[in-house]
Write a structure and sequence with these properties.
single chain; alpha/beta; Rossmann fold; two-stranded antiparallel sheet; 8 helices; about 20% strand
């Protein structure tokens, strides 16, 4: 049956955050637990580093995925109304419904997909696994697309994190920065998110970006990170909410949520500042 949608009403958070290790993907996404509008927060973790959030006053519920099938029970629990009598809720003692679900490490979730198909899940560190074939890519594309579509359609806030991949031309010039998701799955997964942000730790921010941040009166500390929401010819990003601006320094889910839902507009009005060259 078809569904009539009110597109004038802001949707739930549908975010994809990606970056290199240490770019604060986990700290940024897990800060949802510090935001009352997003807590309780459920994390489905695969290859992330929850230890980096040890200093948070309130933490999300963190479930580590050991195999691909572990995605099914939490999805079914949320999709069917989060009953405390559901087997997933009973297994972990959850008595209330989450307001937000985070898939922390979709890069590694895809590895679980390939591992299941190739039979490489339980081989030792000194063994060679079966080769990945083109047929495997087609099957994984279907699974990753279906998983992303199903989770992003859940009636709660959804955040996904990924590592980043870089592509260079024959001269060594950087030509593309995107989420590290193999094959066509990268485009499909990113397409379901309403905002895609590239995270960079402050120590790795380019001089050009620092100049732009200074021109917009954003202070970048040594331990801060920066998220880029605006796409360019190299970096994959987007903001279909139209409220996040070009860059956000020291992002938290509190700050991201407020800029999307407060009605106050973007963090920095991109039309309010005139600079000769913006990154």
């Amino acid at each position: 049956m078809s569904t009539l949608r009110n597109v004038q009403k802001l949707s739930y958070l549908r975010l994809l955050l990606y970056g290199k290790p240490g770019s604060t993907k986990t700290r940024t996404s897990y800060s949802a637990a510090l935001c009352d509008e997003l807590y309780p927060t459920l994390v489905l973790e695969s290859g992330g580093n929850p230890e980096s959030t040890y200093d948070y006053e309130r933490l999300p519920w963190i479930i580590t995925l050991d195999k691909l099938e572990d995605m099914n029970a939490p999805y079914d629990w949320i999709n069917t109304g989060c009953s405390p009598d559901h087997k997933f809720a009973k297994a972990f003692g959850f008595t209330e419904a989450p307001k937000c679900v985070i898939i922390d490490g979709i890069t590694d979730v895809q590895r679980l997909s390939f591992g299941k198909l190739t039979g490489n899940m339980n081989i030792g560190p000194g063994d060679f696994g079966s080769s990945v074939t083109q047929r495997h890519f087609g099957t994984v594309l279907e699974q990753m697309t279906r998983m992303s579509k199903l989770f992003f359609k859940l009636p709660i806030h959804v955040i996904v994190t990924a590592l980043e991949k870089n592509a260079s031309d024959t001269s060594g010039n950087l030509v593309r920065v995107a989420p590290l998701i193999w094959g066509q799955s990268e485009t499909e997964v990113s397409g379901y998110a309403l905002a895609v942000g590239h995270l960079t730790h402050g120590s790795a921010v380019s001089g050009r970006v620092k100049s732009y941040l200074k021109s917009t009166k954003q202070v970048l500390g040594e331990d801060d990170s920066v998220v880029k929401w605006s796409p360019d010819g190299v970096m994959q990003a987007k903001d279909q909410y139209g409220r996040l601006g070009k860059f956000m320094v020291s992002p938290t889910m509190r700050k991201i949520y407020d800029h999307i839902y407060s009605g106050d507009g973007a963090y920095i009005d991109p039309f309010a500042v005139s600079v000769e060259a913006t990154p």
